[in-house]
Amino acid sequence: MNTKIKEYRTKLNLTQDQLANLVGVRRETIVFLEQGKYNPSLKLAHDVALALKTSIDKLFIF
Amino acid sequence: MIANPKWFNLRKYSGWGLTPNCWQGWAYTIAFIIPIAIISSLNIDPNLKNTLILIITGVLILDVLHTMTKIQKDEREKLHEAIADRNALWFLLFGLIAWAFYQQKFDPILVGILLGATAIKALTQIYLRDK
Fold it and tell me: How confident is the model over B40-68, as a mean pLDDT?
Protein backbone atom coordinates (compact mmCIF):
# COMPACT_ATOMS: atom_id res chain seq x y z
CA MET A 1 0.00 0.00 0.00
CA ASN A 2 1.26 3.50 -0.89
CA THR A 3 0.00 6.66 0.68
CA LYS A 4 0.17 10.35 -0.08
CA ILE A 5 -0.22 11.33 3.56
CA LYS A 6 3.17 13.00 3.73
CA GLU A 7 2.47 15.00 0.56
CA TYR A 8 -0.90 16.29 1.82
CA ARG A 9 0.45 16.85 5.34
CA THR A 10 3.34 18.96 4.01
CA LYS A 11 0.92 20.99 1.88
CA LEU A 12 -0.99 21.90 5.05
CA ASN A 13 2.24 22.60 6.98
CA LEU A 14 1.38 19.99 9.57
CA THR A 15 3.95 18.03 11.54
CA GLN A 16 3.52 14.32 12.19
CA ASP A 17 2.85 15.18 15.83
CA GLN A 18 0.11 17.67 14.92
CA LEU A 19 -1.57 15.22 12.57
CA ALA A 20 -1.34 12.51 15.23
CA ASN A 21 -3.07 14.81 17.74
CA LEU A 22 -5.75 15.73 15.20
CA VAL A 23 -6.70 12.11 14.57
CA GLY A 24 -6.02 10.83 18.10
CA VAL A 25 -3.15 8.41 17.48
CA ARG A 26 0.52 8.25 18.40
CA ARG A 27 3.12 9.86 16.16
CA GLU A 28 4.59 6.40 15.43
CA THR A 29 1.31 5.37 13.86
CA ILE A 30 1.51 8.34 11.47
CA VAL A 31 5.13 7.40 10.66
CA PHE A 32 4.11 3.84 9.75
CA LEU A 33 1.06 5.07 7.84
CA GLU A 34 3.24 7.39 5.75
CA GLN A 35 5.65 4.54 5.04
CA GLY A 36 2.76 2.33 3.97
CA LYS A 37 3.69 -0.20 6.64
CA TYR A 38 0.44 -0.01 8.57
CA ASN A 39 -2.96 -0.81 7.14
CA PRO A 40 -5.40 1.50 8.98
CA SER A 41 -9.01 0.86 9.89
CA LEU A 42 -11.65 2.59 7.79
CA LYS A 43 -12.29 4.99 10.68
CA LEU A 44 -8.64 6.01 10.98
CA ALA A 45 -8.30 6.35 7.18
CA HIS A 46 -11.43 8.55 7.22
CA ASP A 47 -10.12 10.66 10.12
CA VAL A 48 -6.74 11.17 8.42
CA ALA A 49 -8.43 12.10 5.13
CA LEU A 50 -10.68 14.55 6.97
CA ALA A 51 -7.74 16.11 8.83
CA LEU A 52 -5.85 16.50 5.55
CA LYS A 53 -8.93 17.92 3.80
CA THR A 54 -9.03 15.23 1.14
CA SER A 55 -10.66 11.87 0.49
CA ILE A 56 -9.55 8.33 1.32
CA ASP A 57 -9.13 7.27 -2.33
CA LYS A 58 -6.73 10.16 -2.97
CA LEU A 59 -4.72 9.40 0.15
CA PHE A 60 -4.35 5.64 0.00
CA ILE A 61 -3.29 3.79 -3.13
CA PHE A 62 -3.86 0.04 -3.06
CA MET B 1 -10.27 5.59 41.05
CA ILE B 2 -6.99 6.81 42.62
CA ALA B 3 -4.29 6.84 39.92
CA ASN B 4 -4.32 9.13 36.93
CA PRO B 5 -3.69 7.20 33.68
CA LYS B 6 -1.34 10.00 32.55
CA TRP B 7 1.09 9.06 35.34
CA PHE B 8 1.84 5.65 33.82
CA ASN B 9 2.80 3.83 30.65
CA LEU B 10 1.65 0.32 29.89
CA ARG B 11 4.45 -2.22 30.12
CA LYS B 12 5.36 -3.49 26.67
CA TYR B 13 8.67 -5.29 26.98
CA SER B 14 8.67 -6.44 30.59
CA GLY B 15 5.43 -8.27 31.19
CA TRP B 16 2.09 -6.77 32.14
CA GLY B 17 1.20 -3.79 34.29
CA LEU B 18 2.21 -0.17 34.59
CA THR B 19 5.47 1.78 34.69
CA PRO B 20 5.48 5.26 36.25
CA ASN B 21 6.46 7.98 33.78
CA CYS B 22 6.49 10.98 36.14
CA TRP B 23 6.98 11.81 39.82
CA GLN B 24 3.26 11.46 40.53
CA GLY B 25 3.40 7.86 39.31
CA TRP B 26 6.38 7.11 41.53
CA ALA B 27 4.70 8.86 44.49
CA TYR B 28 1.60 6.71 43.95
CA THR B 29 3.73 3.55 43.84
CA ILE B 30 5.65 4.50 46.98
CA ALA B 31 2.41 5.48 48.75
CA PHE B 32 1.31 1.85 48.42
CA ILE B 33 4.68 0.20 49.11
CA ILE B 34 5.46 2.10 52.34
CA PRO B 35 2.27 1.13 54.25
CA ILE B 36 2.72 -2.51 53.19
CA ALA B 37 6.37 -2.45 54.36
CA ILE B 38 5.42 -0.79 57.68
CA ILE B 39 2.55 -3.19 58.36
CA SER B 40 4.78 -6.16 57.49
CA SER B 41 7.37 -5.05 60.05
CA LEU B 42 4.84 -4.43 62.85
CA ASN B 43 4.63 -6.91 65.70
CA ILE B 44 0.85 -7.36 65.62
CA ASP B 45 -1.60 -10.22 65.31
CA PRO B 46 -0.65 -12.12 62.12
CA ASN B 47 -4.30 -12.38 61.05
CA LEU B 48 -4.76 -8.61 61.33
CA LYS B 49 -1.45 -8.05 59.54
CA ASN B 50 -2.44 -10.35 56.66
CA THR B 51 -5.89 -8.76 56.42
CA LEU B 52 -4.46 -5.23 56.26
CA ILE B 53 -1.89 -6.24 53.62
CA LEU B 54 -4.60 -8.05 51.66
CA ILE B 55 -6.85 -4.96 51.69
CA ILE B 56 -4.07 -2.59 50.56
CA THR B 57 -2.84 -5.03 47.89
CA GLY B 58 -6.42 -5.60 46.73
CA VAL B 59 -7.04 -1.86 46.36
CA LEU B 60 -3.72 -1.51 44.49
CA ILE B 61 -4.52 -4.38 42.09
CA LEU B 62 -8.03 -3.08 41.37
CA ASP B 63 -6.73 0.45 40.83
CA VAL B 64 -3.92 -0.74 38.54
CA LEU B 65 -6.37 -2.82 36.49
CA HIS B 66 -8.73 0.16 36.25
CA THR B 67 -5.87 2.48 35.24
CA MET B 68 -4.69 -0.02 32.61
CA THR B 69 -8.10 0.11 30.95
CA LYS B 70 -8.11 3.92 31.02
CA ILE B 71 -4.72 4.46 29.35
CA GLN B 72 -5.27 5.75 25.83
CA LYS B 73 -4.13 3.38 23.08
CA ASP B 74 -4.52 3.93 19.37
CA GLU B 75 -5.65 1.13 17.05
CA ARG B 76 -2.11 0.10 16.08
CA GLU B 77 -1.11 -0.23 19.75
CA LYS B 78 -4.27 -2.22 20.51
CA LEU B 79 -3.52 -4.57 17.61
CA HIS B 80 0.09 -5.06 18.70
CA GLU B 81 -0.97 -5.66 22.30
CA ALA B 82 -3.56 -8.22 21.19
CA ILE B 83 -1.01 -10.11 19.05
CA ALA B 84 1.60 -10.05 21.85
CA ASP B 85 -0.97 -11.27 24.41
CA ARG B 86 -2.12 -14.04 22.04
CA ASN B 87 1.46 -15.23 21.55
CA ALA B 88 2.08 -15.18 25.30
CA LEU B 89 -1.15 -17.13 25.84
CA TRP B 90 -0.10 -19.83 23.36
CA PHE B 91 3.22 -20.23 25.16
CA LEU B 92 1.39 -20.44 28.49
CA LEU B 93 -1.09 -22.97 27.12
CA PHE B 94 1.54 -25.27 25.62
CA GLY B 95 3.68 -24.89 28.74
CA LEU B 96 0.82 -25.92 31.04
CA ILE B 97 -0.17 -28.88 28.86
CA ALA B 98 3.46 -30.03 28.56
CA TRP B 99 3.84 -29.72 32.34
CA ALA B 100 0.66 -31.75 32.90
CA PHE B 101 1.98 -34.56 30.68
CA TYR B 102 5.41 -34.42 32.31
CA GLN B 103 3.87 -34.87 35.76
CA GLN B 104 1.98 -37.95 34.51
CA LYS B 105 -0.89 -37.47 36.96
CA PHE B 106 -4.32 -35.86 36.78
CA ASP B 107 -4.23 -32.36 38.24
CA PRO B 108 -7.80 -31.03 38.72
CA ILE B 109 -6.61 -27.45 39.31
CA LEU B 110 -4.66 -27.42 36.05
CA VAL B 111 -7.63 -28.90 34.17
CA GLY B 112 -9.90 -26.32 35.85
CA ILE B 113 -7.63 -23.48 34.70
CA LEU B 114 -7.59 -24.81 31.13
CA LEU B 115 -11.38 -25.22 31.12
CA GLY B 116 -11.74 -21.71 32.58
CA ALA B 117 -9.60 -20.32 29.77
CA THR B 118 -11.73 -22.18 27.23
CA ALA B 119 -14.89 -20.75 28.79
CA ILE B 120 -13.46 -17.20 28.74
CA LYS B 121 -12.56 -17.58 25.06
CA ALA B 122 -16.09 -18.79 24.28
CA LEU B 123 -17.69 -15.97 26.29
CA THR B 124 -15.50 -13.40 24.56
CA GLN B 125 -16.47 -14.76 21.13
CA ILE B 126 -20.16 -14.64 22.11
CA TYR B 127 -19.75 -11.06 23.37
CA LEU B 128 -17.96 -10.00 20.18
CA ARG B 129 -20.18 -11.96 17.75
CA ASP B 130 -22.54 -9.07 16.97
CA LYS B 131 -20.02 -6.22 17.22
Answer: 92
CB neighbour class for B37 (10 Å; exposed up to 12, middle 13-18, buried from 19): exposed
Kindly tell me if the per-residue pLDDT of B46 is higher than 90: no
Nearest chain B residue to A32 by CA distance is B76
Q: What is the mean pLDDT of residues B75-83?
A: 94
Task: Residue B77: list chain A partners with CB under 8 A.
Answer: 26, 29
Chain A residues whose beta carbon lies within 8 Å of the beta carbon of residue B74: 24-26, 29, 44
Contact (Cβ atoms closer than 8 angstroms) between residue A3 and residue A36: yes
Q: Does the CB of A44 have a partner CB in chain B at under 8 Å?
A: yes
Q: How many domains are contained in chain B? A: 2
Nearest to A51 by CA among A28, A27, A21: A21
The complex's ipTM?
A: 0.84
Of the residues B23, B42, B72, the one at which a domain ends: B72
Q: Which domain holds residue B26?
A: 5-72
Scanning every residue of chain B, which has its alpha carbon at the shortest distance from the alpha carbon of A27?
A: B74
B76 to A32: CB separation less than 8 angstroms, yes or no: yes
User: Are both B9 and B68 inside the same structural domain?
Assistant: yes
Please state the pTM of the whole predicted model: 0.79
**What pLDDT, on a 0 to 100 scale, did the predictor assign at position B53?**
93
